[in-house]
Structures are given as structure tokens and as C-alpha cells.
User: Fold these one by one.
Assistant:
Number 1:
Amino acid sequence: MIPIDSLIGSGRKQISFAEVPVDKATEYAAEDADFTLRLYEALAPKVREAGLEPLLLEVEQPLVPVLMDMERTGVLLDVEVLAKQSKVLEKRLVEIEHDIETLAGYKFNINSTQQLQKVLFEDLKLPTKGKTAKGTGFATGQSVLEELADLHDLPRLVLEYRELAKLKGTYIDALPTQVDVAGRVHTSYHQTVAATGRLSSQDPNLQNIPVRTEVGRQIRKAFVASPGCVLLAADYSQIELRILAHIADDETLKEAFANDEDVHRRTASEVYSVALKDVTSEMRAVAKTANFAIIYGVSAFGLSQQTDLSVAEAREFIDTYFKRYPRVKEYMDGSIRKAREEGFVSTLLGRRRFLPEIHSDNRQRREFAERIAINTPIQGTAADLIKVAMIRIHAAMAPLKSRMILQVHDELVFDVVTSEKENVAELVTREMEGAMQLSVPLKVDLGSGPNWLEAK
DNA sequence: ACTATCACG
DNA sequence: ACGTACGTGATAGTA
């Protein structure tokens, strides 16, 4: 949990002994008085030369006790809710297994991609859609099965089986085994894992609790408030696009946020050259996907895969997008140029990510580095921003009994004593929206309820 | 230990 | 012609 090496960004191996939990480092320091000193002397000049002292001293280090409190507090889990869901899913999984067996003509392990390939591509003679990443076989992932579902019922059943088996195995049955005697689960947050400066969460990961499917969402009902409390969830609205608007200094994008517009609708209106009121839901959906694509570093192929657009149509969409948002294009080119010239890209608070592959002769590697050069300043600035908010919120909440319990990249969740609810809602909104002064307003959406599902 | 898959932002 | 969106972590199967 000592966050120093993420600030250096190179020489990780030499200083990897810095990656020990805080309590272990304390233990080592007690046994070996030289430990902390050697660590400090090796790293301090590097941090200072890189201009990273403010980020270290004002963000990463103050965040440590905040995360400690969140980890120690944990979140109350209603294991009864999960036990009921487990039984329902078990029953449905057995039904699906039976139906799949009937269609295949024999029993097989649906979890085995090898056995599934044999059924799909040898027995049923369905068309293959490409190899897996490592080329060890034919892909059977979600997008492949969705295409095959038009040709046969079995792929659709496998998709349903996969969804339910994932939810049951990773969350519904796993989480109850990880509660403490008080019925609470405690994650570990890591400050030095994600290359962009985001936190990561493990054992258990509480940053990937399902929400996208209806069955998955129900799992959030098991994350409940403590007695006498409610859960309050606060999430940044469109944080990465707002940061893009600020960094790129694009007038159209800034205006959309200044007016609190529906930014995807505005993008569709700009690119398709129609009035806001004439934007169809299809146009808005494409624009929404395109806005994500922009943040990740666009490719026409990638956009075409995620939409109904052909590669040519996707290319035209992107061209038009850059005509309407020229500063966004300039930002992207500038970020890639910076990576080439300086060897790294930076977030608003100066956090660095080194990109040696930006000079690679291998086009695939080089273009990957270019997309990282585009994405990291955006994703990393969002990480900077919420960390600042967390530190200020933690300080402001010190006199209160309510607790910050979860961080999910652009969202904070609080276990709030009922009588403190108005107070906490006000201070959370104020500190999140005021964490940084950008050229666009920051907006936070709040919700509360007896569990995480109803708080969103 | 590695691979494929899929959960989240 | 080529391979293709950014960042993570957990699970099950397989070698």
C-alpha cells in the first residue's frame, strides 16, 4: 500500500520492495531501522526531480489512512438474500444444462471452452468467427455466441448459462464465504496496481459488483446499510468526457456541459447535422458508443464492432466527429507527440505513465501505446480528482458517525446514520463537485436506500 | 501457471 | 494486409 513506485513509473524491479502492506512495512522498519531510510533515499530525489512531491504528499500519502478506514469498516452483507438467489439460479442452471444436453445430443461440461468448440463447430457445424487471443482454438466468447444465436438455439442457451454461472460462482456463492463475524466484507484497495492511477480492489473485488443485467443487479440488494443507517451512493456524471472537454479545451464540448446538456444527444446532433430534437435513439446510441471510443483512442474497426455501423461508416463518423470537435483531435495528436518526445504522458496532477512502446517498430504495439497516450491522461485525471474528493470528504466526515465504505472509480458509497443523511449528502456533493476547478462544471448524482441497488 | 471468459468503470 | 477501444480482478478448465 505504499504508493511510491507508481509515481516513479520506471525502475519498478529495483524498488519493488516498496510494495509491501503498510503494517508489514512498519514491521520491517521496526526490525530494520535502515529499511525506511534506504527506501526514502532511493526514491525521494526521483520524486522531487519529476515534480511529483505535491502528488505524493498531498494526494497519495493522505489517501492511505482514508483507504485504511474504508477497508476496516467494510460493508454489511445480507447473506440471506444471496442464499435465496443461489437456489433460484441453481434450479435454472440445471434446466439449461438439460436443454443444452438435448440439443447437443450428449452431456458435456459447458464451462469447458474446448468441449464447447467441439459441439459448436464440429457437431453442429456452425461457422467459426476467429481464433482466441493466443490462437489456441476458436473463440466462443459473448460476441461470437451472439452471432451464432441467429443460426441455432444452443449458443443462446450457453450465453444464459454463462451469465448465471458467472454471477453465482463469482458473487452469489463466493461473497458469503468472505464475511467477518459481524457479517461484513472488507476489500483491499491498492494504490500501485493500475498504471493510470486508479485504485484497484481485491479479495474480494468490490469494484466489479454486477449492475448491467437484471439478474446481476439483484446482487446489489445484498449490500446493505448498517442498523440505523442508509446507503448513500454518489457518482460523477460523465466525468471522463468532462475531463476531455477541459484538457482538450473544446468549445462545443465545454458548452454542452456548461448548459448541462445530454452530451451524447449533442454529439449526435453535431455529427449527423440535425437539430437536437431530431436526434433519434439510434443516432444517440451510436454517438454514445463513439464518445467512449474517443476516450479509448478511436479506431474505425473498433467502433464498427460496437455499433451497427460498417467500418466505412464508422470511419466517416469519426472524420465528421473530428471536424466538429477539432480540439479533441488536437489533444489526441498532442498527447501522442508528448509521449514520443518526453517518453511519458501526464495527468492534471502530474502523474506519469511511461510509454516506451510509442517508438516500437511493431505497428500493433506502437498503436496500442498511442491509444494509451490518449486514454491515460483522461482516466488518470479522473482518478486524481476522486482521490482529492475522498481525502476532503474523509476529513469533513471525521466528526460524524457515518462512514465512506466503497470507491468504484467514479462513485463513492457511504454508510450513513439516518440523522446525518442531509449533512452527509451536502458535504459529499460539495467536496466531489469542488475537488478541482475545471473549465466545465462537475456534476454528482446522489441516491440513497436500504441497499446498494436502491441507492443508485 | 496459463488461457479464456466475463464482471465492473 | 493487419489486428483493433482504455483500465482492472475472479473463476473454471487445462496443461
Number 2:
Amino acid sequence: MVRLIKHLHKRIHDDANAVLRPWGINHPEYNILMMMYGTEGYTLNPSQLADAAGEKSANITRLTNELCDKGLIERTASDEDRRKITLTLTAEGLTMIESFLPDICALLERQTVGMQARDMVQLERLLKKFLDQFEGD
Amino acid sequence: MVRLIKHLHKRIHDDANAVLRPWGINHPEYNILMMMYGTEGYTLNPSQLADAAGEKSANITRLTNELCDKGLIERTASDEDRRKITLTLTAEGLTMIESFLPDICALLERQTVGMQARDMVQLERLLKKFLDQFEGD
DNA sequence: GGTGTATTGTTCACATATTGATTATTCACA
DNA sequence: TGTGAATAATCAATATGTGAACAATACACC
């Protein structure tokens, strides 16, 4: 069971990387972009990202550095709390997201084509339940 | 869904590492030990391990090096095929496995206590089915 | 036998992730 | 106001994972 999850995780990760390679980004970077894309004002701070993405904050620093270097997001100091940093999608970042979205959707399509919708719902429910076991320490 | 699997994978990995730390080994090393423990003669070669563990062979080399250094397994050249290497659990390795087994079982117990046996079977079935989607490229 | 090809395991260089210490700031509270 | 604890982000060191090139051996085939 543990091995099953490990394999699945690896495959998902690798497949996503393969699809994203033409755009010069990898799966973790994609995750960050998509989380910002799904946010009011396309804006988050590093610690919110760390929570949502399940990455360590040190890792977020590295990943967002790369995204900044590529001009996909922007870093600005927060006014309300000067410890915080505000990350915002740039127009360039938005354009890129919308350009790879079709390919990503096709990937997700491919990955689920053999599963009944009912199975997917069921799987998600059980995964959540299982994960709850862990969180409850 | 993808994030769910990522989180779950991470939690399983981290929890196992936490339990294993007192013995000075980590989750990947534990996996290797357990695979050998579950084998006739406590013996495998690196490529079998790589397949079973889903690690790259280069990684297996590093991990088995560490286990050799710690005296938990032994490397010997294979007679039948001189390209191959035979990895065998040492008495020391066996002793260690049997010493941490109770704690590992307790961990697994904790992780599944809230799940019905039926749910676990179902979850495993769906995960396998989902994984098949990917393998079929 | 000799030759080309596949397999096994290792090594090295690089990419990616985590840990622990460090800096700057905020907050609670006397 | 000043002091200590908590929080946000970063940095340097280390651990972990991967890909490409390599050496040694086996195997198929003529």
C-alpha cells in the first residue's frame, strides 16, 4: 500500500514534468503558479504557499527565486506586516499558464480516461479519510 | 487529488523516518532491509531491489553502500553471473529489523485504526487501478 | 572462436529537497 | 517603553534523487 502510493506519486510527478518541460518549468514550479492562479488577485505569500503545496518554506524560497528570475512572478514587501513578502503573478506568468493549460488538461484527461467517475469520487474520499489518520497526531 | 497523494506520500515518509530515527536509519534504507527480510535467504541483487523499491540503480548503490558501512548487509560477487552482486542481510541487520519491528507495527496500527478493513481493501484496489492508467503508456 | 549487442552495477556531475542557524519584524505583557 | 517569545523569510550545509557515461560480463549469432 505504501509502495503503491510511492509509485503513484512518482508517476504523477514524472508525467507532469514531461508535459511541462517545453515551457521550461517543472512540477513544483507549476504547482506554485497554479496556486497563485487560483487566488484572488493572483497573490500569496511564501508561507501560504508552503502550507498549500506541502513544501518546506526554504524550498519555497528557492522555487520562487527561480520563478522570479524567469519573470513569471514578482516579489514585493508587504505593507501591513513587514516580515512578509507578497508574491504576484506577472502578465507573463499568466500568459504562460494559459498556454500550457490545454496540455495539462489533456494529461489529466489521459490519466483518468479508464476510471469511472464514481471510482474517482470514491478514491478521493478514501484518500482524504486515510490522510486524516495522519493529521490527527 | 494530485495534492492529496503528494501530502499522503509525504506524511507516510516523514512519520516512518521519525519512528526509525532512533535506529539511525531512514525510510529508503528501511525499505531495502524489509525487502530483503521478506526474501528467501535474505538475499537480493541491486537490480531486483531497484525494481521493487522504485528507486534508480544509482540510488540503490548509494543506499546499499551506507547499509554495508553500518554492517547491516553484506555484498558478495555472484558465482553464476559475475556481473551480479549478491546482497545479504547480516545477523546484525536481522537483529536490528527485529528490534524496530514492534515500533513499526505500532505506527501502521495507528495509521489505520480509524479505517474499516473494507475501506483499506477498496482504497488499495482503486489505487492500483489508477496506477494502471499511468503504466499503460 | 570472434563480433556486436544487452545487461549489471558503479561513478560522477548535477538537480532537487531538507535541516538548522540567522535576520528582521511583530506581538504580548509587565 | 522595554523585554522576551513567536513568526516570516532566507541562507549555508547537507542529504537525497536522477541522468549520462563507463567498465565488466554475458549472450546470440555467424
